[in-house]
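Trying the structure run again after the queue cleared.
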Amino acid sequence: MQIHLDGLILHGYIDRLSLATSLDEVSAVAKDACREYGFEKVQYGVLLPVSAAQPPRLIMFGNWPDDLYQCYVGQDFLSLDPCIETAMSGVPAMTWDRLDYSASRERLAFQADMLSFGVRAGMHFGTRGPRREFSCMSYCVDQDPQKTVADMRYRLPFLHLLYTHLHQAVLRLEAQLPTGAVGLSGREMECLKWVADGKTSAEIALIMRLSEHTVIRHLANATSKLGAANRTHAVAKAFQNGIISL
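Done. Tokens:
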């Protein structure tokens, strides 16, 4: 009975992904599924090659708190995260009780930092695509890993299938964007518009009723997606490509 119910819930999310017309809608599915399946945090990211002369474009969304996001990106945890390593090595899905943090002191320190943010147990999914893109998605909870292993392994096939459809929805929407739009979310474009209007991060936060850290994150994402050197350069490229206008 429970398997049948979970299957119906999953198909509802897949239907929403097939009808999604923006990355914000795809992000909403990820967050709703996170709550529905009993997790506390979810994060999705994909690196999309642009050209040999440019760094890959990053699209990332989820419900990580600002301090966790800033710590993960600012301290280059991407290079230490065993989830990324196993996903890049070709393992498509894994629960975290099977991860090895003992490879180095740096990785043990990474584990301790993540624990301090309430990231204790979870699972992740990853894939490499024909365009040489790489994506990874994780769901996690702040619970004793030994008490959650059975639940994690039960939910893994449902969420792995959801991740597959979600990733395809991201690629579909990214491909439909006009040249230069590079998958900016509605929030990212709105932040760029306010920067173009001369507003600081603090002022934008007040206008949009967000934290300043969230505004900084949206602008950092937009800058990365546009292949810009800084937010001023990002605004210039956004105008040039017709993403924003006066």
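The beta strands are 41-48, 57-62, 93-95, 121-128, 134-141. Worth checking whether this holds up in the mutant runs.
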